[in-house]
Amino acid sequence: MWKVRGFKHMPDAVDKSTASGAQADLEVATLEHYPRLAHQQMLQVNARQKDFYESRCAATLAGQVAERAANTPTGVWSWTREKLVDMRKAAGLDEYLEELHRGWMHDLKDAHVLDLGCFTGNPLSLWIAENCASYTGIDLSEQATAVLDAKLRELGLTHAHAYAQDFLANSYADNHFDLVYAHSVLHHFKDIKVLLEELHRVLKPGGIVISFDPLMTEPLNWLARTFYRPLQTDRDWEWPFTRATLRLLQQYFEIVDMQGLMGMSRLGIPLQMVPGLSNLGRAVMHFGAKFDKKYAQHRASVFPLLAGYPALT
Ligand SMILES: C[S@@+](CC[C@H](N)C(=O)[O-])C[C@H]1O[C@@H](n2cnc3c(N)ncnc32)[C@H](O)[C@@H]1O
Q1: Among 49, 55, 180, 188, which is best to mutate for testing ligand 1, by the most ligand atoms less than 8 A from CB?
Q2: Are strands 112-116 and 203-212 parallel, antiparallel or unpaired?
Q3: What would the pLDDT profile of 14-23 be if each residue is shown by its tens digit?
Q4: 61 φ, ψ to 5°?
Q5: Is the CB of residue 141 below 6 angstroms from any atom belonging to ligand 1?
Q6: Secondary structure (H, E, C), 277-306
Q7: Rounded to 5, what percent of the chain is helix, strand, coil?
Q8: Strand order across the beta sheet in which 203-212 lies
Q9: CA–CA separation, 4 and 294 (whole Å)
Q10: Which of 65, 89, 100, 218 is 20 to 30 A from 1 via CA?
Q11: CB-based burial of residue 154 (10 Å sphere; 0-12 exposed, 13-18 middle, 19+ buried)?
Q12: Whose CA is nearest to atom 12 of ligand 1?
């Protein structure tokens, strides 16, 4: 997970004011062409991603785990993810994550916040909405955002709204938000450069992004993503972070803090899946979690083995 702050000026932005003549125009056009093409392709993929999350939302509302739009490997993945999340919660790691993110957000009193990919509400969505100056939750799914918006209406929060919107649809003015909160969402953008440029554009100078994403540098995640993922329905819109992602991120943002979530604690996961060993697995996860909280801090990329987050999102 990351807390990053936008630079005042983009370090590698093309300065069109100093470009002159046909050659300079061509260079600018070529540089701009590629992101635009990638942007268009991502919008097309997101039309399918939207259907997928609509059906996931319908399944969630009906109390089912597997999505209608999912094939069997996706259903198995989804089931495994639910189990993993339960284990994470039981080990106190989700609570720890929420506390950490709350701390990173500080005082939101004057902040205009975008909750990107909010679905029916992240663990902190309502808390953010209650404490900030204005709250905008967006997600590809209309059904999911309708659910969140109904919760916001119930709380009487007139400065808070959730609606269906593709973040890449260019709907916000430049320098609009103080904080973008993206809980398990940024790895849904194939071309991270397109995403970073849009984040940079909509954030005020010095604005903050707080994100939580799986790492491809984590060996189990690498194995699963490389060999199992291609079988899944949702393979086209999940791109866990790599070291290259981190390098690119640093060109656009200053990393203020970063933290891995599951290192040693994940050793308890396979044990909990074996009949008769679940108590031992829970104990391993519990002590692993204590170790992770102490040692994974600030080392998400340095010790991915210790601090990798094998999220099955
Ligand atoms: C893995 S889910 C995470 C949902 C929720 N944040 C959570 O942690 O439970 C990713 C979410 O991101 C949303 N999403 C992906 N790309 C998006 C985009 N371009 N604009 C808005 N939402 C997007 C999806 O619709 C989906 O609900």
Answers
A1: 188
A2: unpaired
A3: 333 333 444 4
A4: -65, -30
A5: yes
A6: CHHHHHHHHHHHHHHHHHHCECCCCCCHHH
A7: 55, 15, 30
A8: 160-164, 134-139, 112-116, 177-183, 203-212, 2-6, 253-258
A9: 21
A10: 65
A11: exposed
A12: 117
Three-state SS across 57-86?
HHHHHCCCCCCCCCCHHHHHHHHHHHHHHH
Question: Tokens 């200053």 appear where?
Answer: 254
User: Which one has a higher pLDDT value, 26 or 134?
Assistant: 134
Residues with Cβ within 8 Å of 311's Cβ and at least 6 positions away in sequence, in order, are: 81, 84, 184, 213, 214, 221, 240
The span from the CA of 295 to the CA of 289, in Å, is: 10
Look at residue 256 in the predicted model and tell me its pLDDT: 86
Q: Are the CB atoms for 290 and 297 separated by under 8 Å?
A: no
Inter-CA distances, 120 with 83, 101, 124, 145, 164, Å: 20, 19, 11, 6, 11
In the structure encoding, which two tokens stand for residue 105, read together?
């957000």
pLDDT digits (tens, 9 = 90+) for 101-137: 999 998 999 999 999 999 999 999 999 999 999 999 9
As a whole number of angstroms, the distance between CA 121 and CA 118 comes to: 5
Domains of the chain: 2-9+22-307 (3.40.50.150)
306 Cβ below 6 A of ligand 1: no
- For a pocket test of ligand 1, which of 140, 141, 199, 232 has the largest count of ligand atoms closer than 8 A to its C-beta? 140
Distance 174 CA to ligand 1 centre (A): 22
CA distance linking residue 145 with residue 139, whole number of Å: 6
